[in-house]
Design goal:
alpha/beta, Amidase signature (AS) enzymes, 17 helices, globular
């Protein structure tokens, strides 16, 4: 057995003490390589009959229904899988997708088992489905740090509205996931937990800012991942990690209980390995919130699963976006496909051929009048954050308090952070009105063009490099922000895999509240594509017996050390894969007695 002890006292000046003790390692096997845990040992499941890898909602609920496995055993198996693969540092940086495991997850699973045993019914459509949520979304039993050491210990008094909806549907909130600090970044780097690694190659960029949720779902640590998106924070990590990911229309999903960085255009949305699982999660999330006015006037319909038809591409017209903006009209110009390598172009052509075979028609389009200006999209953010932090006993009183905490890096040192806060446009002012006018004008412009050309969706690549990149200039979601700057829905799907086995993603954009159309097309496309390639992960058996509290302390230590040794002194990109691997090896690699 392994025993780890972490007597840690962490203050503004650093780590006072750390002790990691290693006893004899063990070898586990069974459900998702997890059958030797005390809970799993009580199961009558034959390991060969069930495997967590790439399991869908339907797979898990079938196993539960025929009593092949209990919810308690299933939850324990996912927790053990996370411990086995999330922090491996033998040959590469760790995935480090998880910020905190939920100490109440197994108790919640037991309650679901009791309900099923007594009634023979599910609690709801997501009964016992392991779900992870981004660390800027409030949960009752885990802190919400928004990726910042400054907010470590901030415990909201209530679940975010969408988390409440997920729980009522029976979902198990398994863990909180890593993110770029304050949802502002592309690289999965934070003072809360350090660096996230791509599920397919942990040396590479996972995408941001919802990188932890994407990596966790791709690595089969959960079935559903919830992220948030301003400039691509769901879409980029979903694409880089081979998932389907949805940025919903503004107002479809409640923002209640989410750390409000960029409330004007920020949205929460699901990520999954299959379109069907994503549609089931969206059914639960897309509900009106009495306390969120944006959700009140949204037209709502039946289940999104009704759109999942094999003929969903038949008769669809797709506009391939070749240009956004126009220098001649003094509007920033971007060509989303420019400079793309030939081998990546070939992958997209093959994906296009699959869609054409399914009945879709493609036309090239330009959007010269689209306004990509996002300078005012953070208007009102200071007031929003101050109000959020004052709603419960948070670790910081307001935005300025975050700056002076000496525990944040995203906006520079203390003086730079305070200058940034002072520069934010006020709530309800001219800048906020200008941003809203840009969003509305862009929406009218795009939808009018789609109507004229009878288009069902627009298509463009997530990046001009195809797969994961560290170069922000190659990312289209913020340089050609069609979805973000118009409040329109966008769905990421995988076009294929490059020569190195990395996923190549593209996005489909449609009219406001036309999520059903996107799901219809994506489902039909998915039926014709080769099976998703599951990432190959390296196990670390020595961590499987860690208690949840020990695991959570270990992740916190990674973040604190990353902050004190790197992030407090320089910019986030300086926490490279090599640098973080060195930190992680020092902290995680146990010393044998």
């Amino acid at each position: 057995m392994l025993q780890f002890s972490f007597p840690i006292a962490i203050g503004r000046t650093g780590i006072i003490g750390v002790l990691i003790c290693l006893l004899q390692p063990i070898s586990n096997s069974g459900i998702a390589e997890a059958n030797s845990s005390p809970i799993a040992q009580q199961s009558q499941v034959t390991p060969a009959r069930f495997n967590l890898g790439e399991a869908t909602i339907a797979d898990l609920q079938t196993a539960l229904k025929i009593k092949q496995i209990t919810c308690e055993q299933l939850t324990a198996a996912y927790l053990e899988r996370i411990k086995r693969y999330n922090l491996t540092v033998r040959t590469a940086p760790p995935l480090n997708a998880i910020v905190a495991l939920n100490p109440a997850a197994v108790d919640a699973a037991r309650a679901l088992d009791r309900y099923f045993e007594q009634t023979g019914q599910w609690v709801g459509p997501l009964h016992c489905i392991p779900t992870v949520v981004k660390d800027n979304i409030d949960t009752e039993e885990m802190t919400t740090s928004a990726g910042s050491f400054a907010l470590l210990g901030t415990q909201a008094s209530h679940d975010a509205f969408l988390v409440k909806q997920l729980r009522q549907a029976g979902a198990i909130i398994l863990a909180k996931t890593g993110m770029d600090e304050f949802a502002s970044g592309l690289f999965g780097i934070s003072s809360r937990s350090g660096r996230i690694g791509n599920a397919y190659n942990s040396w590479k960029n996972p995408g941001g800012s919802s990188g932890g949720s994407a990596v966790a779902v791709s690595a089969n640590f959960a079935v559903i991942g919830i992220g948030t998106d301003n400039s691509g924070s769901i879409r980029v990590p979903a694409a880089f990690n081979g998932l389907v990911g949805l940025r919903p229309s503004t107002g479809l999903v409640s923002q209640g209980g989410i750390f409000p960085a960029g409330n004007l255009d920020g949205v929460a949305g699901p990520m999954a390995r299959t379109v069907t699982d994503l549609a089931q999660a969206l059914d639960i999330m897309a509900q009106p919130d009495p306390n969120d006015p944006k959700t009140q006037s949204v037209p709502r319909q039946g289940s999104y699963r009704s759109y999942l038809k094999p003929q969903g591409l038949q008769g669809k017209r797709i506009g391939v976006v070749r240009q956004v903006g126009d220098v001649a009209n003094q509007i920033t110009e971007r060509k989303p496909w420019q400079g793309m390598p030939q081998d990546i172009q070939k992958i997209f052509r093959q994906a296009e051929q699959v869609m054409q075979k399914g009945g879709a028609e493609f036309v090239d389009i330009k959007l010269p009048g689209f306004n990509s200006d996002r300078l005012s999209n953070m208007a009102g953010m200071k007031a929003d954050i101050d109000a959020y932090l004052s709603a419960f006993p948070a670790a910081r009183r307001n935005f300025q308090d975050i700056c002076t905490s000496k525990r944040t890096h995203q906006y520079g040192d203390e003086s730079a952070c305070l200058r940034f806060v002072a520069s934010l446009p006020p709530q309800g002012g001219a800048a906020e009105q200008a941003a809203l006018q840009i969003f509305a004008a862009n929406k009218r412009y795009v939808e009018t063009l789609m109507d004229k050309q009878k288009l069902d969706a627009l298509l463009l690549p997530i990046s001009t490099t195809g797969s994961a990149t560290d170069d922000p200039e190659k990312i289209n979601t913020w340089s050609s922000p069609i979805s973000s700057n118009a409040g329109l829905p966008s769905l990421v799907i995988t076009a294929g895999y490059d020569a190195g086995g990395m996923p190549v993603g593209m996005e489909l954009v449609s009219r406001q509240f036309a999520e059903g159309t996107l799901l219809e097309m994506a489902y039909a496309y998915e039926q014709q594509m080769p099976q998703r390639r599951s990432p190959k992960l390296e196990p670390e058996e020595r961590l499987t017996t860690l208690a949840i509290a020990e695991f959570n302390n270990l992740v916190t230590l990674l973040g604190v050390t990353s902050y004190e040794e790197v992030l407090s002194q320089t910019n986030p990109q300086s926490l490279t894969a090599v640098r973080f691997k060195d930190i992680a090896q020092r902290i995680i690699s146990p010393r044998r007695k």
